[in-house]
Amino acid sequence: MGIGYSRNGYPKEALFLYYEMVCRFGQLGNFAFSMALKACSDLDDLRTGRAVHAQVVKATEDPDQVVNNALVRLYSEDGCLEEAIRVFDEMPQRNVVSWNSLIGGLVKKDGVFEAMEAFRIMQGKGMGFSWVTLTTILPVCARVTALVSGKEIHAVMVKSTAKPDAPVLNSLMDMYAKCGAMDYCRRAFDGMQSKDLSSWNTLITGYAINGLMTEAMESFQEMICSGFSPDGITFIALLSGCSHAGLTDEGCRLFERMKIEYAVSPTAEHYACSVDVLGRAGRIEEALEIVKNMPFKPTGSIWGSLLNSCRIHGLVPLGEAVAKQLFELEPDNVGNYVMLSNIYASAGMWESVRTVRELIEKMGMKKEAGCSWLHVKSKIHTFVAGGSNEFRNSAEYNKVWKRLIEEAGYVPDTGVVLHDVSEETRAMWVCGHSERIATMFALINTGSGMPIRITKNLRVCLDCHSWVKIVSKVTGRVIVLRDTNRFHHFKDGMCSCKDYW
Known about the structure:
The longest helix has 15 residues, at 11-25. The protein is built from 27 helices and six strands. Strand 3, helix 27 (462-475) and strand 4 form a beta-alpha-beta unit. It has a six-stranded mixed sheet with strand order 2-1-3-4-5-6, covered by helices on one side. It starts with a helix and ends in a 6-residue tail after the last strand. By secondary structure, it is mainly alpha-helical. The radius of gyration is 26 Å and the shape is globular.
């Protein structure tokens, strides 16, 4: 009866039955423990789960693999990673479910690099995989731009006698898209026997974030002709793509078509995209009209889009008014304070910059450090702005750097450093940005002609963008840089964003 409750979505009833069994029989076995632990996981009830674990420890019967797997899952899903690892390490035997639970827990706690390592160990032990394994690890490959690892997983899928289902193939497409490999993404899509709306949305989103808006719009029309109706996710992808590609009029038309032609009610995120489309293009009055006339109060994302437009176009008074709204809605979001500080810095208002930075310090907030990473020789290498001093002072680094400077005649644009410091310090800081260090590492440690793929946690700065264009021209390398907003594909001194981002 307990298993019946558990399998049919009644975890609370399954747990009540367990209580009744404890009261009636006292000592229980693995069958009852596994049922109770599953119910605790489904209810997110860690406290009761710990109590069941205590009963497992006290039991005369050793826990079997099902009970141990249930414990790993319970602790992993509740973020108690240390306890999950302890149970995992003490297991006499492990199966695919055990590894899936551990990897899922690592991913949930943002341990993406550890999750990748756990998957490698799992495969090294000949454990195999399930589709759950792949839908967990493929998004990790996407997140850290580990294209080589993603391709290896794809190869394993191809060799498998079992046919992957749509969610697995959608995860594969998403991985390729987020690694900037849209040709592979399209091939995976075309090879699918059965596509769902998520498949189409993944394809369209992939094209949009990679700056291929012609292909995104063509895929949108193809989707409509195939009998699929677009949803809110479809239009977020298209509107965001139009914003970053400078397709202002097309973005405005899509926003209207969404409501009238496809009966999709705009959410706050759609309005934020629409405001961003207009704001980036300098059509601030129209953006303000949208904010004024929307059917609900503007959210943080909407005000955030408007504040970013103020940063782009140097609108200090409006930026101050927008920032005030954001500080009320999101008092703990340091990004809003940093953006206002940058608006002041761009206008040379250093006293106002100091005031905002003192406020950030007083509130105990910290600006997120610039961080970039790339996948080289089966390892994820991470670089932080201003760090990696030993590498940056090495003979190899200086040799390559000197060659780039001499061949390109590069001079740092210190205007991007929004601090009131000397020109020498500005030049030193801008040359120490994380994406620049990552690019240099790739040039030294990968074969000539190999594409370079880098991910950054923040928006790439203007000077680093110019510098990477120069590097791509001098070295003949294709460099794919993914920042917090979009992809930049550099080739022969040009960028796919056409310097509009």
